[in-house]
Fold Protein DECREASED SIZE EXCLUSION LIMIT 1.
Amino acid sequence: MASDRESQRRRPSPDPVAVLRGHRAAVSDACFHPDLPLLFSGAADGELRVWDTASHRTVSSIWAHGGAAGVYSIAAGSGLGNAIISQGRDGLCKGWVIEEAGLSRRPIFTIKTSTYHFCKMSLVKVPCSAHGTQTKLNGSNIGPEPQRVPIEDNTGSDVLNPAEGTQEYDQGSSLDGQNILTIAGQESSEVELWDIKNSTKIMCLPKRCSANMTGHPTKQKGLCMAVQAFIPCESGGYVNILSSYEDGSTLWWDVRKPGSPLSSVKYHSESALSIAIDGLCTGGISGGADNKIAMFSLDHQKGMFSLRNEIESERPGIAGTAIRPDNKIAATAGWDHRLRVYNYNKGNALAILKYHSATCAAVAFSHDCKLLASCSADTTVALWELYPPKTPSKIDITTEEAEK
């Protein structure tokens, strides 16, 4: 078992390169734009801000979710194009288009999920090859090709209730995987998949038709606290989902088998609060209300988890986790106001970052791997430059071109 105490014997941790101030309430989440030098942050009072990561200034600000609902989660991805999604505790997920003057004042779509909980939404992660990752880091705009995600015939499941705004899909039909949103369900122990483009529910995990059966796979596990959707290369284009629960367990789902999970593990003795999957979709990291951080691998042939590293933190409570796109480092956001950085492959502690004066809610890496953003209940967002990726030399580029 590793320990983050090792990092205390290393050189002093760096200071943030910038601190973004402007929010008037606790900042719940932050994410980077996949292509533009923009950072988005959402606060508990419903404000959604856009920051320029070069000038460190606010580009625009809107009130995305009214009342006391607040913005709980934000997501951006190449599949959304020039738009982002915000999730509020008002049971709504809203899409916002990025304009020249900032974010649109009105949402371009609204998804009425009717879910009120503490689980942040997840877009579908598509793996990129090691070469594809390096190409993107080198400044190319070439990304992974869009993948189509076949969806089973769900007409036999009572989740497809027209009154709830769901939509039926014929056998053999498909959806763009980058147009799918996953979220903890209206029944808080379940996971729902939504079609962003049509604002309709696709399916529920586990299937509602099996909800009254003995041995229900999630009801005894309590609330769903975290979800991560992805498309493994081995799945033939079908969406897989990792979901973490109040009892500390994590389940692995394949939409082709919605009645029961492929596998289940329990890495945490208390609620599993956050989970992130790496860029290749071959493993991930999870944190919980206990003092354990788990790094695991996914065996796609057997459909099983494999624990790689179990890290014991000095203090309990990991609210957020993230893995850098190049799969080299991982970061966690702690209740103790600290950010912890680890070597993702080896599991050893690299640094403990001390700036925030209140609970840290989330961490996020930029897509070029140069920045780490952290947000906190102290109303600030901090930007950090840690172990930046090496810029390829002319020799490396010449060698790569010769190999082609």
In short: The helical segments are 130-137, 394-403.
